[in-house]
Amino acid sequence: MVIVKTAREISTMMDACRISANALCVAGEYVKPGVTTWEIDRRVREYIEKQGATPSFLDYGGFPASACISVNNVVIHGIPSKKQVLKEGDIVSVDVGAFYNGFHGDNAYTFPCGKVSESAQALMDATRISLEKGIEAALAGNRVGDIGNAVQTYVEARGYSVVRDFVGHGVGAKLHEDPSVPNYGRAGRGVRLLPGMTIAIEPMVCEGSYEVEVLEDEWTTVTVDGKLAAHYENTIAVTPDGPKILTVAG
Ligand code: MG
What we know:
Layout: H1 7-30, H2 37-50, E1 54-55, E2 67-71, E3 74-76, E4 91-100, E5 103-112, H3 118-136, H4 144-157, E6 161-162, E7 168-170, E8 177-181, E9 198-201, E10 204-206, E11 212-214, E12 221-223, E13 229-231, E14 234-239, E15 242-245
Antiparallel strand pairs: 1-4, 2-4, 3-12, 4-5, 6-10, 7-8, 7-9, 9-14, 10-13, 11-12, 14-15
Helix pairs in contact: 1-2, 3-4
The structure holds magnesium ion.
The site of magnesium ion has 5 residues, from loops.
């Protein structure tokens, strides 16, 4: 069941989204060679808790950390670790959510660690822009398939692929609400977008094949071919005036 929010609820939700966006900025400040992913997670958690908010992902389905930190061929759900030391050239996808005043915000960004290869940068750029394309398609009256189609079309034209096994989602009082928001699909198909819907659009884009597998820890999701993946995400609201990004730092 799709939950449509009032303007007042969306306004409240913007606080959680701002905290999430700021937490992502905190993570970005620590993405540098020699830093462990555990350290980044700790800084993120400290920031969120200092705002009086709760990390959305901590203990969610048993996830052991506040941020998912996914390096290089890890697509999503990487578990922060003291053993994982970032090195020059890594691409580091951080996904973080915060729960505050009854609502969640959810966002992700792939950060370069130091100087990255041209091909890695191109993948990151394409993924970031595909998120913008997806957001632009999130117009009231459009359908969920219009978002996926916009992302997929942009990504595939550049020779990349979009993950099928994981998708974006509604977000609000619960971290994952209806509808599912795939990053692929046919224009004009799927759930109709209504003003007041709040959704997380999150393209996961692979340099090679979109096939992924989940490792034995039941979280870490990697590309089967071992090639790079990038992941960007915003929480947005569908409004009568067009899509509004809620996960804005400030
Ligand atoms: Mg999400």
